UniProtKB/TrEMBL annotation, chains A, B:
Enzyme class: oxidoreductase
Taxonomic source organism: Nocardioides nanhaiensis
SUPFAM superfamilies from the UniProt entry: ACT-like (SSF55021), Glyceraldehyde-3-phosphate dehydrogenase-like, C-terminal domain (SSF55347), NAD(P)-binding Rossmann-fold domains (SSF51735)
Catalytic activity from the UniProt record: L-homoserine + NADP(+) = L-aspartate 4-semialdehyde + NADPH + H(+); L-homoserine + NAD(+) = L-aspartate 4-semialdehyde + NADH + H(+)
PROSITE patterns, per the entry: ACT, HOMOSER_DHGENASE
The protein's required cofactors: a metal cation
Protein's job: Catalyzes the conversion of L-aspartate-beta-semialdehyde (L-Asa) to L-homoserine (L-Hse), the third step in the biosynthesis of threonine and methionine from aspartate.
Protein name: Homoserine dehydrogenase
Keywords, comma-separated and alphabetical: Amino-acid biosynthesis, Methionine biosynthesis, NADP, Oxidoreductase, Sodium, Threonine biosynthesis
Family matches, as PANTHER family: HOMOSERINE DEHYDROGENASE
Length: 432, 432
């Protein structure tokens, strides 16, 4: 690098598990980063809540500040990395950074899923980049492929395992036969689940990521509140065993589909065939499966969380954003919106797996089949197993609307011959 | 788009299975492409060998030309898509296009693996982009993630299944127990293998891709002739069964590793554990597994060939290159080279699986173990199975240099107590 040439100055907001790894990589990879950016990349400051808090990386004391608002407004800051998380003050800081001419890299899924358009418009107005690869599926490059590599193709469907905690729990249930509570406790002991696991277990985290994936895949605006959401707290060992019986495995999926011009975006547990590429995603790993018209089926797999993996994604964005900043150009932005309707869950087409304990007498199967047929639901397979005085019926339906399917289950629950509907779960993923 | 604004004019060289799909997508996706590029994208011309040849897409007759050299030299061509393949005339046409100020997108793995640096220098000198996502693993976005998403990380290892034909054959052998010849014939019947399957079966195709992957992953220059190469023609049903016995599967792998400052680049069949993400890559699919310091383990999966998938990758590149062309900027180029030594195969550290038919008498195991030890090779596991008058020993070694391992096998072959060394294969991939 020639002396006196341009230097890229980076402010990092937050120095927790991700922020500290970003600061570490900025220091350790300084030479490589300079070569790839085309100019030295310098740390301008690190905003923290308390100067004297313990942290995983050594920051030169002069660079630490508790005045995040002051840091992003500084003239000598070219690039802001936001890894505080949450809605405020992250949103105000990002907006201020853009207004002051900085480009921004963020890992903030909650903010993007709640109020992405406000941020994108601010970036557009400022003529700056706002990149957020780290917000979905940690280190896995998925936003860039969706936005850039598939820019000449038409994505029709995205199926993602985007929450490592729930995948760890479901994988444990599948491999050991354990129940949900026991598996959650193991995840907590191993540090895969938090003491309050609500955000993960109830699907809130996955729903935020689903909103971001749907927005990018279909060039439209989807917020977290548009996403239909069911968590995994009600998944039982019996559900998991039922899935195994039909050669499937239970996963918490984030699903975004294009149906004509509307999108359907949802997060719920579903059975997928073991031969499907997503079925082999074990433990706390994440993966995103993409179907597009020309490319066909693609999958992106990797660690979905953790300080270092997330920091890797932040640095990848940082290199591109820094190059654009130097060149005075912008990357592919979010400008090309075609606002699409979001389909209500009731109108979304899906398939159900239903296990029913019934009286073991003649005509039961016909009666149950009639209930499906009355709601316009076609049955793909039905299996009947005698169990002494009662019997179990396992029905897998063809595609129907979620409203038709749930009405069918409602009717089954009220039928005299039905002792109990023991398992209801959606089925996704053709047997590849 | 405002009338009279800029228009991006694209010349397509070649109209075979990929070229015809590129032309089709340019026409069908015109509106989406214009929105994403920021200007209309128009077909300026399509260079073909014969105007009246049958083709899969309708091209307005005025746009067809047999004068490819004249087409790339035209002033009104902004962007050249090269999908002819092979070394010449592709190289001269790309160089001429760059000299005349066009940016280039190519799917030409053979040319890039043989003479990439010449092309990269020409692009650098012309201040234009040269993108080639489609050259490796078809539709799978792998070059862009390596070059951009992981730009702030340090890649240490790439393991790829980058040839669909050989993966189809090996998968068939694994699932049916059939031999190589029979499986190759089935692949040929189904159109997965060509009448002359040499380029695929002998690993030439995978070696070209390995060279490109290694160059990008380690920011160095590796050509196809630097790549150690073994094909799959000698893989037997017994090898595949031996792999199954140790919970593994045989795959043709393209491997690029960073060892200190040298790189090791090789293509050969290897046993990998069934729990490894690459083991679940079936049929003609491709996948690239990447290990990096911060991100950890990533995998990219999808169709590795075919007209439409390859065209999807070409169009993805085209959108980025077109945006850069309009902005007068360039994407992340190949500028940051650190020329690294390529390690000879003999010095590459690897592991061997060796199956040996031996006389069933006392002391045989000790004698065989001694042969390994004399060459400095440590044994990880050994399994002995009686088979009437003789016995089989199956040895899996710890890591040693390939020279030490092959010398050990050489010595075993000459030993009196050894009837036959029935299977020798490298072992890759930790049990994940």
């Amino acid at each position: 690098m020639s002396e006196g040439g341009p230097v890229l100055r980076v402010a990092v907001l937050g120095c927790g598990s991700v922020g500290s790894q970003v600061v570490r990589l900025l220091q350790e990879q300084a030479e490589d980063l300079a070569a790839r950016v085309g100019a030295p990349v310098e740390l301008a400051g690190v905003a923290v809540r308390r100067i004297d808090a313990p942290r995983e990386v050594e920051v030169p004391p002069g660079l630490l500040t508790t005045d995040a608002a002051g840091l992003v407004a500084r003239d000598d800051v070219d690039l802001v990395v936001e890894v505080i998380g949450g809605i405020e003050p992250a949103r105000s800081l990002i907006l201020s950074a853009l207004e002051h001419g900085a480009s921004v890299v963020t890992a903030n899924k909650a903010l993007l899923a709640e109020d992405g358009p406000t941020l994108f418009e601010a970036a557009e107005k400022a003529g700056r980049d706002l990149y957020y690869e780290a917000a979905v599926a940690g280190a896995i490059p998925i936003l860039r492929p969706l936005r850039e590599s598939l820019a000449g193709d038409r994505v029709t469907r995205v199926l993602g395992i985007v929450n490592g905690t729930t995948n760890f729990i479901l994988d444990k249930m599948d491999s050991t036969g354990a129940g949900f509570t026991e598996s959650l406790e193991e995840a907590q002991e191993l540090g895969y689940a938090e003491a309050d696991p609500t955000a993960d277990v109830e699907g809130f985290d996955a729903a935020a990521k689903a909103a971001i994936l749907a927005s990018l895949a279909f060039h439209t605006r989807v917020t977290a509140s548009d996403v239909y959401r069911e968590g995994i707290a009600d998944v039982t060992a019996a559900d998991v065993a039922s899935a195994a019986d039909i050669g499937s495995v239970v996963k918490l999926l984030a699903i975004a589909e294009l149906n004509d011009d509307a999108v359907s975006v949802r997060v719920h547990p579903a059975m997928i065939p073991r031969s499907h590429p997503l079925a082999s995603v074990r433990e706390a790993y994440n993966a995103v499966f993409v179907e597009s018209q020309a490319a066909g089926q693609l999958m992106f797999y990797g660690p979905g969380a953790g300080g270092a993996p997330t920091a890797s994604a932040v640095l990848g964005d940082l290199v591109t954003v820094a190059r654009n900043h130097l060149a005075g150009s912008r990357g592919v932005g979010e400008s090309a919106y075609a606002q699409r309707a979001v389909l209500p869950m009731g109108e979304t087409r899906t398939r159900y797996h239903v296990a029913i304990d019934v009286d073991d007498r003649a005509g039961v199967l016909a009666t149950v089949a009639m209930a499906f047929s009355e709601h316009g639901v076609s049955i793909q397979t039905v299996r009947q197993e005698g169990r002494g005085a009662d019997a179990q019926l396992v029905v897998v339906s063809h595609e129907a609307t979620d409203a038709q399917l749930s009405a069918t289950v409602e009717q089954l629950r009220g039928m005299e011959i039905v002792r109990e509907v023991t398992s209801v779960m959606r089925v996704e993923g053709r047997d590849e």
